[in-house]
Design goal:
heterodimer; A: 196 residues; Four Helix Bundle (Hemerythrin (Met), subunit A); 7 helices; elongated; B: 92 residues; mainly alpha; 2 domains; 3 helices
């Protein structure tokens, strides 16, 4: 008999906790989704003769700052989880709160970037194929970040109500996997869309 | 592993990600041809993504099955992208 399953509320059929495995299967489908978009972007760019230099259109310094903010949010989340694992309730709550704050800051900066591009530079999804690709990729990623922030708000509120303990904090770990994945996708997107 | 060593590891990974981001920005402005810059940038991005996946998402310390689940879609995506790219190149 599996002692972990007998002693906790978690279940394992493949030697991996089922909820964690379920999240990874979902993330695998998200990998297909984003690599499909990124693959299409690479192919479209290769076959399109007229392609603007991204740095001439996009605000690279602002987006570099945004990338750093997202990386920080992954760090605060992993610290929050580590605190939960050690039974440090305050550390867990601070980590989760900072992650939510940084995620919201990322979204705010991205909204500002979109506003600047559309209203000042007249760079829209319909202005060029680069525009269509840019807003599709960053837009879908932004929606994923928004969903992540909403989930983390939920997790943070649960942590304030004492739902997570040193023995049971799976919710933070699983929500964390999704958030780190969102950060990972941005690392790739920033490089492919903004820098190359 | 002790709490302090966990903290030190996460701190080191964060510092690594920060340094790699700075390196990426510097690489993008190097006075080189586009292809070498693109290859270096993709390499740096893969290193950063791997650090996040292995340490923040804990893949390095999990069963190998999770790494396979995470990497398998990449193989399919690469095949699809190459096929579509080849098709588009031919049609032009």
């Amino acid at each position: 008999m599996n002692h972990a399953a007998a002693s906790s509320s978690s279940y394992e059929n493949l030697g991996i906790e089922n909820r964690k495995f379920g999240m990874w299967i979902f993330l695998a489908s998200e990998v297909m989704f984003f690599t499909g978009l990124i693959g299409a972007y690479i192919v479209i760019r290769q076959v399109t003769p007229e392609w603007p230099v991204p740095s001439a259109v996009l605000n690279i310094p602002l987006t570099a700052l945004n990338t750093f903010i997202l990386i920080c949010s992954s760090a605060t989340l992993v610290k929050g989880l580590a605190s939960a694992q050690q039974g440090d309730r305050e550390g867990m709550q601070v980590g989760l709160f900072l992650t939510v704050l940084l995620g919201a800051l990322f979204l705010s900066i991205q909204a500002h970037e979109y506003h600047e591009l559309i209203h000042e530079k007249h760079f829209t999804p319909s202005s060029s194929i680069f525009g269509a690709c840019f807003f599709t990729l960053t837009g879908f990623h932004g929606m994923h970040v928004l969903v992540g922030v909403i989930c983390l708000i939920f997790v943070f509120l649960r942590s304030m109500r004492g739902a997570y303990t040193k023995e049971e904090h799976k919710g933070i770990e699983i929500a964390g996997l999704y958030w780190h994945f969102v950060d990972l996708v941005w690392i790739i997107l920033f490089t492919i869309v903004y820098l190359i | 592993m002790s709490e302090e060593s966990h903290s030190r590891r996460y701190g080191a990974i964060f510092l690594g990600l920060f340094v790699l981001t700075i390196l990426e920005l510097a690489t993008a402005n190097l006075p080189l041809a586009r292809l070498p810059i693109a290859l270096m940038l993709v390499g740096l991005a893969i290193v950063k993504a791997s650090l996040v996946a292995m340490f923040y998402m804990h893949l390095k310390f999990e069963k190998i099955l999770l790494t396979l689940v995470a990497l398998a879609p990449l193989a399919f995506s690469l095949i699809f992208t190459l096929i579509i790219g080849h098709d588009l190149m031919l049609s032009r």
